[in-house]
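> call design_seq(struct)
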């Protein structure tokens, strides 16, 4: 697998963060658009498997196909740049400032949303024969139900519901950003895929909240007749999920890897030798 140790791949993460801050607007938007569209199609694929087999684990095992493909193709998810871009600022890379980080995050959000929404529209056409079918496709019906449960379902619990969705989003990007890191853990395609696959399978099976997957899920749910509004989606899902993804990815992945594998403290061995 040609495994790379953390001391070897963390500098690559910082390099990647610098490259994304400096990337042109055109390239940032294109790569974000394709990332959102690809991940959305993988979500539709996984839910279809769940409906047809009745086994949620089957969908979770196969969902990472989309994640692995988009990262091997060099596309960008918001949940990934949440972790990568700040590393370049912390490392004081030339020209890397917080304004550049926020610019990248904004462009990637727009691109991801546009890509996920495009896939949602195409899948809605597919499920409904161009919105002409009288009966709702079973897979489309699942999206409508999920949309209700993960918006108004949280709203029923008030503040506790908001906290719950935030925590589920934190847990999600702990795993998803670990998957992003996994793409740098090996110099071979097979090694990269295995490292990315594991945390992505975990997040999907545990039904954590991923902001880009939700950019597909909720528009799909609305087009399939879900009993919730755009306001419900934004207030009770997308906004707290984006914030939770940011906090979870930075806290449990970016800060931890940077502080211990890049800004490593001096070993106690030298002090013990002096004391002896």
């Amino acid at each position: 697998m040609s495994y790379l140790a953390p001391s070897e791949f963390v500098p690559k993460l910082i390099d990647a963060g610098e490259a994304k801050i400096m990337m042109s607007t055109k390239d940032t938007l294109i790569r974000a658009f394709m990332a959102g569209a690809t991940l959305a199609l993988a979500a539709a694929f996984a839910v279809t498997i769940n409906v047809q087999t009745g086994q949620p684990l089957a969908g979770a095992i196969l969902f990472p196909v989309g994640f692995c493909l988009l990262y091997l193709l060099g596309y960008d998810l918001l949940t990934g740049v949440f972790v990568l871009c700040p590393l370049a600022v912390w490392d004081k890379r030339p020209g890397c400032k917080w304004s550049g980080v926020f610019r990248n995050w904004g462009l990637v959000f727009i691109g991801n949303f546009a890509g996920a929404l495009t896939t949602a529209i195409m899948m809605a056409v597919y499920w409904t024969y161009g919105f002409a079918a009288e009966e709702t496709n079973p897979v489309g019906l699942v999206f409508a139900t999920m949309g209700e449960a993960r918006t108004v379902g949280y709203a029923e619990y008030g503040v506790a519901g908001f906290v719950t969705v935030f925590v589920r989003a934190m847990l999600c990007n702990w795993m998803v950003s670990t998957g992003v890191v996994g793409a740098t853990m090996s110099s071979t395609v097979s090694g990269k895929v295995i490292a990315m696959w594991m945390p992505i399978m975990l997040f999907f099976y545990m039904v954590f909240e991923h902001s880009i997957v939700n950019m597909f899920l909720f528009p799909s749910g609305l087009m399939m007749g879900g009993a919730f509004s755009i306001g419900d989606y934004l207030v009770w899902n997308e906004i707290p999920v984006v914030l939770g993804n940011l906090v979870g990815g930075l806290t449990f992945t970016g800060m931890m890897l940077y502080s211990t594998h890049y800004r490593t403290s001096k070993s106690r061995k030298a002090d013990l030798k002096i004391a002896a």
